[in-house]
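Review form for a predicted model. The reviewer records the input and the model, then writes brief findings.
Reviewer: anonymous (R2)
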Amino acid sequence: MQLRKALESELPQIWNIIQYAIEQRRKDGSKQWQDGYPNPTSIQNDYDKGYAYVMEEEGVLFAYGAVIFDIEPAYEEIEGKWLTNGPYLVVHRVAAAPEAKGKGIGTQFFKALEDLSLNKGVYSIKVDTNFDNAPMLRILKKLGYTYCGEVYFRGSARKAFEKVLLPKSE
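Model under review:
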């Protein structure tokens, strides 16, 4: 399983993964992603900015996420307190394909992000999710993310988490 930047030719497959995730959120009774976001324009923008990443194995896409090594404006005002104030990786729009169900792909995706972040010398990952996104909340708990408070996106509160990474010892 490999984490890598998405190819433009994969955008239709990525959109299918996102649509599957939107439907899963709806079936779970979640309000997240039930208002026309994300949409194909969101994914195209991720690609255009170099944020679009996929987990793939032998050409099969198992997960997608927007991986951003830049300041997230919504994270500048948190109701709570981040663990760190330095550079960080932020991940948005994480979604897993139907083929990934029950295979721990979300966990693998986040572990691969930790490696990517460390390789770039960035020792913090910040992420947010809806209060009712149980699968994401389970992944974040399992991987040791710390709840830091709430941030707001498009008028809605999101639970904000951070994980401080330790540099790899030589």
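Findings: Residues 11-27 form the longest helix (17 residues).
Further findings: Residues 2-164 form a domain with the Aminopeptidase fold (CATH 3.40.630.30).
Recommendation: see findings above.
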